[in-house]
Amino acid sequence: MSPESDPPIDEQSVTRWLSERTEVTEPLTFDLIAGGRSNMTYTVRDAAGRRFVLRRPPLGPLLPSAHDMAREHRLMAALKDSPVPVPLMVGLCQDESVNGRDFYVMHQLDGVVVRDIEVGRSLSPEVRTRMCHELIDTLCALHRVDIDAVGLGDLAKRSGYIERQVKRWSGQWEQSKTRDIPLIDQVADTIRARLPADARTTIAHGDYRLSNCMMDPTGPVVGVLDWELCTLGDPMADLAGLLGYWFRPDDEDPRGDAETTSLAGFLSQEEMAGLYAEQMEVSLADVDYYRGFASWRLACIGEGVYARYLNGQQGDQDEEFDLDEYKTSVERRVELAAGYLGIIS
Q1: Which of 48, 72, 107 is where one domain is finished?
Q2: pLDDT of residue 279
Q3: Average pLDDT, stretch 313-331?
Q4: Percentage of the chain with pLDDT > 70?
Q5: Strand 103-107 with 89-93, pairing
Q6: What angle (nearest 5°) sits at the alpha carbon of residue 139, between those of residues 135 and 141?
Q7: CB 262 within 8 Å of CB 254
Q8: Are residues 161 and 257 in the same domain?
Q9: Domain of 279: which CATH number?
Q10: What is the rounded distance in angstroms from the CA atom of residue 24 to the CA atom of residue 68?
Q11: Tell me: the pLDDT tens digits for 100-124?
Q12: Could you tell me which of 331, 245, 231 has the C-alpha nearest to residue 291?
């Protein structure tokens, strides 16, 4: 199959592959879940009501090392018996004759994804507060996992996380950028110049946030999702990434998680960071450095998303996607990073 010209899902071939690995009743239906900014995610249902989730890369040319299905599958399979809740895997397919690109399938979880403010409004303030505590508890559980005991000791190098990340995302920026933003390079240079010493090494999810978790309607985390960016690294970067999506009182136009977490009951960024620091017994003295890094990285990632939408690589999304707003958000992210690092006031 040609990933550029054929449909994202070869329904007959994937149905056959899935029926060989788990119990299904044909026919199967495949529905694209709108809102994904990177890999394409489908709800799969069979005639008996069983539900699965299929993940595959976007259409068209891909950047090197991006959209690694095997990596996502490996992470969740390894954490199956850990304190970190993850979906149960069905299998990974790396035979391109099946669907043109690698994909994996997992059982669908029951819960709610708090993806926007309308979902947030359906929750009571008490549940919102509990969700905050549960999010931090789960992040701490992830950062306590023994990487060797779960078979992930060779997932990546155990040192130089920030330096590796800056190299990777600077390269991705150069390959996907649609315009020049000199501040991107200036922030990257500043991050490199202030590399933290003696950073701990844990599993680093890479995109841990409210809308990347399946939540029980009463508050607990049912499953942590979207492991595409996971590696071994500095746990403070995960905390900073979570804060980067959280509401800030000075944000003139909050969107997504930030808008949702503005609702009563959600804790502040400072309270969330305090919960983490207390549980993990760490200092928050360098948190602004990590916030700067997280915002800069999100700008680089955002440019890649923007470029893929321009090129029509995200399939037929049902929701309206504001390209101009997303383009501007990249600029806002790098300016925010520069502010955290003291480059601009």
Answers
A1: 107
A2: 98
A3: 69
A4: 92
A5: antiparallel
A6: 115
A7: yes
A8: yes
A9: 3.90.1200.10
A10: 26
A11: 999 999 999 999 999 999 999 999 9
A12: 245
237 lies in the same domain as 101: no
CA angle 163, 40, 180 (to 5 degrees): 45
Measured in degrees and rounded to the nearest 5, phi and psi for residue 252 equal -75, -25
Give CA–CA dist 311/304, Å, rounded: 11
Let me know if 245 is exposed, middle or buried by CB neighbors in 10 A (0-12, 13-18, 19+): buried
pLDDT (average), residues 229-255: 93
To the nearest 10°, report the CA torsion of 202, 221, 242, 176.
90
Which two three-digit tokens encode residue 35? 């809102």
Are 161 and 204 in contact by the 8 Å Cβ rule? The answer is yes
CB atoms within 10 A of CB 13: 16
What integer pLDDT is reported at residue 2 of this predicted model?
42
Residue holding tokens 């037929």? 316
Token pair listed for 42: 């489908």
**DSSP3 helix / strand / coil % (the chain, rounded to 5):** 45, 10, 45
> Are residues 269 and 206 part of one domain?
yes
